[in-house]
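Obj: model holo form, ligand = farnesyl diphosphate.
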Amino acid sequence: MIDRFLKNPEERPHQKADTAKSGNIPAHVAIIMDGNGRWAKERGMPRVAGHREGMKTINRIVEKAHLMGIKYITLYAFSTENWKRPKSEVEFLMRMPEKFITKELPSLMENNVKVQMMGSTDLLPAHTLKAVKKAIDDTAGNTGIVMNIAMNYGGRDELVRAVKALGEEVESGSIKAEDISEKDIKAKLFSSNLPDPDLLIRTSGEIRLSNFMLWQLAYSEFWFTDVLWPDFNGEHLEEAVKVFQERKRRYGGV
Ligand code: FPP
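Output (holo structure tokens):
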């Protein structure tokens, strides 16, 4: 029953899609953009055609999120496990930031979007890094929604890095092991300058985290939809936010 509702929130009559209320908009929405490959397969197209279409969704959703008053949007574009995909698909995905910047920079500027990246820069090809850096630099002065792209990101990798960094500080004597707090761990995460996501969205009907923001999602509300990422639109985002607004967040309290 719960699983059915998780997968098909539209089956809950009191949570039917409508427009989200203006108050209580989630400040930070994180999205696992899934289903590009299946979208393409359904149309007899190569998987990469799904990624190309998925890139168009990004622009649409960031713009809509900005209009709704969402302050931060984190998008899972490439995980530390995605290197296992066929070489040609990995190469295509590594070209996405360049394609995105070439095509979308003017609209990012127009919409006052500030780009940042979350993930390890190790292993990213120089051309990918260059494009990401250009997006970050060119939008650095923008003051609207923050678009945080998770590239070569893994939640466990992030935690291992945080533990190593704190271990080094313990070794150097700048902090005592017994004094390490949640705040110190957060400070070592890639997303240290962002609040934790209020809402996590995953498209395509998969109900798992796939190593995404393991620390940061501790108290986030989750919303899953069967819609494939290339088909995801502003109305779906409204629906997710509306469901979020009906949830009671207790953070372990009563
Ligand atoms: C998951 O679908 C999607 C990805 C692994 C890549 C998502 C990337 C983009 C939408 C473009 C990124 C753009 C920028 C600017 C970095 P899947 O391939 O796992 O789909 P499937 O589960 O149906 O096979």
